[in-house]
Amino acid sequence: MSSFVSQFKAAASVKTADLRHRQVIRTALRSYEVVRDKRKAAFQSWESARQAAAETKWEAVNHLDTHLEALTAKLEARGTKVHWASNAAQAREIITQILRDKKARSIIKSKAMTSEEIHLNDALEAAGFTVVESDLGEFIVQLRHEPPYHIVFPSMHLTRGEIKDLFQKELGDAPSDSPEDLTMVARRVMRQKYLTADVGFTGANFAIAETGMISITENEGNARLTAALPKTMVTLLGIEKVLPKFADLALFLPMLATAGAGQPMTCYNTMYSGPRQPGEVDGPEEWHVVLLDNRRTELLADPEQRDALHCIRCGACLNVCPIFRNVGGHTYGTTYSGPVGSVITPHLRGLQDWKHLSNASSLCGACTEACPVKIDLHHHLLHNRRNASTNEPAFFERLSYQAFGLLANEPGLWWLAKKIGWLTQPLQKLVKGSALDPAKAWTKTRDLPPLPQETFKDWWKNRK
Amino acid sequence: MSERENILGRIREALQTKAPLPGSHTAGGATTHPVSESPAAQAREWLPLVGATAEEQLALFAKNAADLKADFQPLASRAHLKPALLRLRDAENWQRIASHQGELSSLAANALGLPVLWTDTGYDVQAMEQCDVGITECDALIAQTGGVAVTSRSAGGRALSVLPPHHIVIARRDQLVADLPAAFALLQQKYTPDFPSMISFITGPSRTGDIERILVLGAHGPKKLTIFCV
Ligand code: SF4
Asked: Distance, CA A317 to ligand 1 centroid (Å)?
């Protein structure tokens, strides 16, 4: 068993038994479902919108090279510096070098899952820079030195009491445990950081090939400030983020808001097409856009699962997933958790090490139904299972299916096996769930169904 | 070979094999025709419904803005702007304001009898941080969402609409558009090929739900958003 599997199993057993955790997650997601359904119902046709979004993403991803060329040509024409990074190490190196060239010391960051993906904060801190996450949820998990729990709601696993204690300990400032007061503490702390940071760092939700823009979606205004005040701006985005047309955003922005948080629109949706332009009064003097591959092209090379690159990271599939809701976000041990994480992590970080995530699924299909861009998520979990066992068949599984095949093909043997089963079943009760039990993996937490006294064959023969 | 060429090379190689059309895993869901160049172009037919008349649209905007906890004040004439602003000034005890030169924004900022930080020729951010309110114009009000569209050119830069704790938008009634596709079309037509470096759709005052998913206004941006329409 790889260490990733044992880590996952151990953490999952702890979390599924943790009733308090379940309660917190359930409370956090209850209102989400209500408002999301209301917003979906407000669409004249959510289903047609989904199909159109899927088609638009299909077009974008299946002509990715031309769209990226158009995007970068437009960006560069307005003075933006575009960098290309094949992997995480290159991206970290590019960004560190920009900061060194600018003689920067402090960096203010708005939420970016790509930066989690390349472990940017650790690298920057190791290089001596001060990094502050400005999104409230990200700020909270940064103070706790832990990764975000959820791609959209980073701190949803924490209660107000825990956040109050954290602020008291780390900031010495927590007037009460009301969300309002705690939010204002973060607001005060962050204000001066915006004004004094040398570099503002952002992620991106979309990029527009037609007009050469990147689009950032957020509720708090922290990305707006990050992109307005520091002299240098750095944006890291995955190459799959590109959409063909400016007008495509008219569809994608409300869909992202609806699927992600049950909002009609997220509070700020902002498109950037360059650093400060002639005649403008503020904005960064320099803007660096770093395009990240980091094995996205491997996913692209698998036509069967290519649509996983359509993902707009709305988090809807996590919210509805019975596995995510029980094992929790941190258990996955991945940057992207939930169904979409289980689908793409094997591509991004190795199939054999991460195939267990595709097995941890009830295949209920809730994710596929929730996905605003119609990614075939639960079938991809099956595809991963198939690929994993084709590449590296599990020895015992193969053996047991061979044995079963033998029994099923020989009526005599089948009869014998039945008899042995009847005779030994009472004995199994004595050792149930213990080390002596051959079916331990199943019986530890479940009962084995009793073998029927009369077989189907006998019943058929004796029927009136 | 540069990383750019490496990445583009890998993409081109990957795309040699065609992918199934979207939705093909659900019966009847696959697109049988080739995917049109921009399917999102018909978004209007699927997005939330908006009435056809100006009155319906204004009413919808007002309702959406109220849901977002924005303060929307349609005014009968420009003469009503000054008293409405003075009421806010006195209620919130403003000391300093920030704004930019513009037909409506100047009118509003000059009506208050307070020191004004004008952003037009550059400004000190610490000074803007001290301002109680930022007054800007906008490019459009969107009935479908109850939001406003601003740009770095129409709204005094990037920070003015987001740094002071109260953002006031002064819009003309003819700036109200029906829906998001109309707003994007308007911006594209108005600014192509020379877009402002920032275009922002502001839909309600800044908010967060990061603590127990409970709504708090004024996370980092303005706690209050007031929209005057004259
Ligand atoms: S896979 Fe679909 S539902 Fe899940 S995060 Fe991505 S876009 Fe959202």
From this structure: 5
- Are B64 and B148 in a shared domain? yes
Same domain? For B143 and B119 the reply is yes
| 3-state DSSP assignment of residue B66 | helix
Q: What is the pTM of this model?
A: 0.92
Same domain, B19 and B125: no
Does CATH place domain A48-294 in 3.40.50.1980?
Answer: no
Question: Tokens standing for A423?
Answer: 């005779």
Is the domain of B80 the same as that of B185? Answer: yes
Q: How far is the CA of A152 from the centre of ligand 1 (A)?
A: 11
Q: Which residues of chain A make contact with B122, given a CB cutoff of 8 A?
A: 281-282
Token pair of A244 as six digits: 């063909």
Task: Check whether residue B60 and residue B7 sit in a common domain.
Answer: no
Q: Report the CATH number that the domain containing residue B134 is assigned in CATH.
A: 3.40.50.10420
Domain with CATH 1.10.1060.10 in chain A: 298-391
Tokens of A4: 């990733």
Nearest CA in chain A to B154: A280
Query: Do residues B87 and B200 both lie within one domain?
Result: yes
SS3 B24: coil
One digit per residue, the tens of pLDDT, for chain A of length 464 reads: 578 999 999 999 999 999 999 999 998 898 899 999 999 999 999 999 999 999 999 999 999 999 999 999 999 999 999 999 999 999 999 999 999 999 999 999 999 999 999 999 999 999 999 999 999 999 999 999 999 999 999 999 999 999 999 999 999 988 899 999 999 999 998 988 889 999 999 999 999 999 999 999 999 999 999 999 999 999 999 999 999 999 999 999 999 999 999 999 999 999 999 999 999 999 999 999 999 999 999 999 999 999 999 999 999 999 999 999 999 999 999 999 999 999 999 999 999 899 999 999 999 999 999 999 999 999 999 999 999 988 887 788 888 889 999 999 998 998 898 888 888 888 877 887 777 777 777 787 788 778 887 888 888 988 87
Q: Do B40 and A140 touch (CB under 8 A)?
A: no
Per-position DSSP letters for A168-197, written without gaps between them: HHHHS--S-S-HHHHHHHHHHHHHHHHHH-
Q: Concatenated DSSP letters for A121-157? A: HHHHHHTT-EEEE-SHHHHHHHHTT---SSSS-TTTT
Could you tell me the CA-to-CA distances from B68 to A152, A221, A266, B93 in Å, in that order?
20, 15, 10, 24
State the residue range of the domain holding B11: 1-37
Quick one: A298-391 is in which CATH superfamily?
Alpha-helical ferredoxin (1.10.1060.10)
Per the structure, how many domains does chain B have? 2
| Closest-approach residue (CA) in chain B for A68 | B8
Asked whether the CA dihedral A428, A431, A436, A439 is positive or negative, the reply is: positive
Query: Are B55 and B19 within one domain?
Result: no
CB contact under 8 A, B46 and A52: yes
In this structure, how many other beta carbons lie within 10 angstroms of the beta carbon of residue A448?
13
Q: CA of B44, closest CA in chain A: separation in Å?
A: 8
Residue A228 CA, ligand 1 centroid: distance in Å: 29
**B106 and B167 housed in the same domain:** yes
Cross-chain Cβ contact A268/B203 below 8 Å: yes
